[in-house]
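notes to self, project folder thing:

trying the whole complex as one job this time. last attempt i did each chain seperately and stitching them together was a nightmare. two parts in total, labels are on each line so i dont mix them up again. if this works i'll redo the older ones the same way
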Amino acid sequence: MAITVLIPTPLQKFTNNEAKVEVDSGNITELIETLESNFPGIKQRICDESGAPRRFLNIYANTEDIRFLDGVNTELKDGDEVSIVPAVAGG
Amino acid sequence: MTQAIAAPPRSESATLTKLISKEGGFEYDLKAINICENTFAPLEVAYDYDKIKDTVTRATIEAGPNSIWRYRPFLPVATDNVIDVGTGMTPLVKSTRLARRLGLKSLYIKNDAVNMPTLSFKDRVVSVALTRARELGFSTVSCASTGNLANSTAAIAAHAGLECCVFIPADLEAGKVLGTLIYNPTVMAVKGNYDQVNRLCSEVANTYGWGFVNINLRPYYSEGSKTLGYEVAEQLGWQLPDHIVAPLASGSLYTKIRKGFEEFVKVGLVEDKAVRYSGAQAEGCSPIAQAFKEGRDFVAPVKPNTIAKSIAIGNPADGLYALEQAKQTNGNIESVTDQEIIDGMKLLAETEGIFTETAGGTTIAVLKKLAEAGKINPDETTVAYITGNGLKTQEAVQGYIGEPLTIDAKLDSFEQAWKRAQTLDRLDWQQTF
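result (full assembly):
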């Protein structure tokens, strides 16, 4: 299952400067693990010490904030798009 | 890319030193970046306070321009070439009639409904952001806006001769859309709420090389709100108030008022004092107020549904810091219904002659709620921040205010109507009391 992941600028140093990568995963937790195995070091940036996504990072599955879905257990399917977007903007 | 590669200019008197992450303390150069690469936390501008202390006195400020630029050593710009369109130094009105109505003895209204050039506090942050944008070599500026910011960015960009493209939710009040279009920027009306607009802009900012005032220029931009603190301190005769009440959208303004007060203490311009900070949200978009009420240490995002569109941010960037600030300072964060917001707008208009927009109605309604609940001591010097103008959100009060009495151009027609008006007033009065 191919899922497109949009990578924010500060994390593109892990993805060979690619803003978009494709991975296979069944949910957000798996997606983060897969990203880590493809791009070592990236998980430590996405997640805090407890393993949860950092509080200043928003993760969207097909434009919906995963906190309005099933959090890191939000299921993903072929063709879905996941965006990782820094939260600190606006106002 | 429109950003120049050459090192930005810097005058001898510049006081800004670097950007520092609010989590982890990582340091960055003074570029157009808004987030820490390590923790994704916001970046904060740092200054050389010793240098400020050596050069700034009450007298040097008082001798400065009648605008926010009288506080230039405290603002994150590196040159003398600032964009000064008369922003700031808005009235601090001593309230008597509203104060009496609320049972408060020392209430002031900071009236940014008459800020220049576009009648909201946003002119402060935009004047700073566009000055910095020019220093950093941007020729195109942009923003994600609930309306006021779009008005301000478009107007001040026009004045400065910068290209401008703004993004707004498609369902904004007509006055806010028109008040942007008149300056002839490109306006993108996005089918979605503000948080969706903001997210889109974060993606555009990454790829287009524009100066987004509230994204990649956010550390500079947000510092402009400190002037709401400086001005109140100066206008109170160089002292801090006891309690402030301000609207909460992203939470930035609320935290920057405090930073402004604390910087004045740090450089010896005012005496230290324990200021209480209270925040106002609309019930239909109250993620910070909900977290405060439930005693949580995190802010869960919500989907906005309120007439107070200018403060309808469901995923507030500085929500966490606002929450901490209210707790630390013995303040409160309260929310009010849309009806209470309309009543707040009317109350401020009828008692003080100030026509504010829905955000101001929210602030006044929360001020009233806190006063009635005994959460504001009547003797406290309290300042309510009114951040926008009611003429921009006329839809909000349409149908909730009176109508003109249409009469013939004859004396008896007037007399009949006048009698009728007085009877109606009396009935109204009887219903109220």
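what i see at first glance: The radius of gyration of chain B is 22 Å.
need to look closer tmrw
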